[in-house]
Input
Amino acid sequence: MLRRFLRHVTLLSLALSLAFSLTLGAVRAAHNDYACLRFYYNARQNWLLDLNSGVYLHDRRLTGSPLDVRRGAVSPDGAYIAYVNQAYTGRYSLYLQPNDLPRSLNLPMACADLMTCWRSQPPSAAAQRLQLNTPVIGMAWAPDSALLGYVWLERSGVIKAAANTPSGALIAEQTVTGEYPTFHGWAAEGRYLLFSTQDGALRLTLHFWAPRENKLYSHLIGAVRGVPPYIAFAIAPRHSRAAAIAADRDGMPILYLLSAEGGIERQERLPPHIDWRFNWSPMGNAVGLYHFDPPYWHFSIYEAAGGAHRSIGGVTTGASLMQRDGLRPFFWSADGQSAAFVLPNRDGTGRLMRYHLAEQRLTPIREAVLEAYEAPQQGRVALVRQVGARSALEVLDVQSGAAQLIATRDQVRQVLWLRGAEALSFVALGDGALSVEYADLARHAVQPLLRAQRLYEPLRQEPATNLLTLWWRAADGRTYLDAYTPLGERAYRYRLLGERGSRAPILFSAADGSATLIMVSADDGAEYLQIALSDGEHAYLIDSDERRSTVALWSPDGQRVAVVTSPLSNLPSTARQRLRVLDRNGALKYDFQALTVGLLYAWTRCG
Output
């Protein structure tokens, strides 16, 4: 009997080993190493997998669900993240936590493709859950990062707004009645949170809420034509004013200038133009309006309190009515006494004009302008000008009209002001190659970052890290992903293997960025996985020509990565999945086939 029992136990152990398909005879890890993986399956079933033994156990330690991130916002100082996620149960949650998530979460992000939005990180241990059940309509950090404001639809006819500190403490909460909420953001440097509501008759109300005093100022604008109500909307960032254009019941656009305590300060009917762009002056006393009324561009300034509508320019491009390439807002001086804008010419260039409000005088200050990029802090504009057969990049002070020459190149194609530094980056063309360059405005220094045969995406900064990211191909045909700090220092360079696809690669990076697992989609829809180290040289192909959903999570020490792949036709919680664990050189350590484990959640110690 004992011999028969031992035989059954042996056969059962062999069957379990075969079911998990543990390959390559993995080296056992000590109890204090990260050798176990947690998985979230559903609200009642969570699992713990011991990689050494293949034992797969119910795990009662898991208390939350991983993140399906729908919307995120990083505080202006970069220290905190707020994000909305939807759990498998369908419940929405708003979390607030320190910005300590690994880059693989890539917040904030848009969830256009559900299968690429499932992420494997749980909320941080320091995360505060602020709001449940219903989706957040909108959220934004105050400019000083001291408050997070958000608005949600509590139930039909009841809309709520709240403000919390970065630690999660509730400052105030406000309830209004209405439908169809629209979130706008902060005004007066974070004193007022703005949002709009409509009633059943589509009557529009704009709300200015001061959470620190918990004072609400609500101003009825009137009946509008539809939902959403606004054709254009802009907040004066440093003052308690907003500009809005909304269509009335007859479809005619109406301009409204409102303030928190003064209500509607100006209301004016506009002709039915095609497009509008607002830009408030730094002082908040006037708004520039740049709009297209075929076949003319119009440049107007509206003062909030009194004053006449000042039409200060108009020009026809002589081009197709659908060609609105030159549509740009006003560029204000730091003192708010002057405004600059570009008048398009027929030859494709433009003339930078400056209007002085007090003198009501319009003068040209720069010729042959090709592009203009306003600095994040108003008062300066980066100009690309045509100088002979070449392009000159300048930074112009709108108030004085003085320009600082940054560089002269055969062509300057893109310019990006960098957050977190007194610097900008630009793309130049010369000698048949592209170069990405970094300009330190304080030191009057320009340095090349790379020379490329091609850039696959425009210049951009990651919101959560402020890293300048570049996806490019070198002259030798190799493809790379680079990232640079706002100070112009390279953070990492990953080399891509195989053919480039039409979709941007998806990165699952180790916490320190020294290694990443990259998923690349080929043009025919197939995908391949690779590991790349941050030195720009070492890269290892994992597999190719598969169509599946992939989630990956690096161990805290950055030495191993767990990769779960699922068929695209199934959600991660129900699919028959494959789990592999690889080291940073791409060597396969563990391979479990045909599992139903749910969503990879976290690395953990087994002991």
Observations:
- The longest helix spans residues 2-20.
